[in-house]
Design goal:
Elements lengths: L5 E9 L6 H4 L19 H6 L15 E4 L11 H8 L4 E4 L4 H9 L3 E4 L2 H11 L5 E5 L4 E4 L2 E5 L4 H8 L4 H7 L1 H23 L1
């Protein structure tokens, strides 16, 4: 997994609440266990049914930061939704709130999610309509800036922050602790041997 810290780029608005994972990527696109190739299905039905949907508009092409409403990522716990967003070049999502499982899946796959104040998100959604609004994010400092707000602080889980900054998924994190695990097991084995010897005497 790539390291995540500083993200800078244009905003793309998704001015909807309760966008579920089936809207993010419809089930018919879930034909592979690989993480690649899902960008094609990103918001496929929304793009088909709404010509004005932001992901249909040329002015938003190349945007790196999505702005969304309440309860983004609700519905079924399909990890493919995160893969589709990442595959489309989106590196972070700022929203009023996120579904818990989607938040967890995102953190494990290198997609930074930032929960922000409703008033500020509304300002970002409005400003993003121009296709020119940009933002800068620092996970290390836990702050983001745009024309709508300078150095806005956000909360983030310390463990997930450590993993993102160091490019570690859950397995990578466990492997990174091998020396500590080995040391613990050696001490535990030594204590067990000592206790057994003491008991026999």
């Amino acid at each position: 997994m790539d390291k995540v810290d500083k993200i800078s780029g244009r905003l793309i608005p998704v001015s909807r609440n309760d966008v579920d994972t089936d809207q993010i990527i419809p089930a018919r696109y879930l034909t592979s266990v690989s993480r690649e190739g899902f960008a094609e299905g990103l918001f496929a039905d929304l793009k088909k049914n709404d010509p004005e949907f932001s992901f249909n508009q040329e002015k938003f092409q190349g945007a790196k930061i999505m702005v969304a409403g309440v309860n983004f990522g609700c519905g079924s716990s399909r990890e493919h939704a995160v893969w589709a967003i990442k595959g489309a070049g989106i590196e972070a999502v700022i929203a009023k709130s996120f579904a818990d499982i989607f938040f967890s899946n995102s953190a494990k796959n290198g997609l930074l999610l930032i929960e922000a104040d409703e008033k500020l998100v509304d300002q970002l959604l409005e400003a993003a309509q121009s296709g020119k609004e940009e933002a800068q994010i620092s996970l290390e400092e836990q702050k983001f800036s745009s024309a709508a707000g300078e150095n806005v602080a956000f909360d983030y889980d310390p463990f997930r922050k450590h993993c993102l900054l160091n490019g570690l998924d859950d397995l990578d994190y466990i492997l990174s602790q091998q020396d500590s695990v080995k040391s613990f097991e050696e001490k535990r084995s030594a204590n067990l041997f000592y206790d057994t010897t003491k008991a026999n005497n």
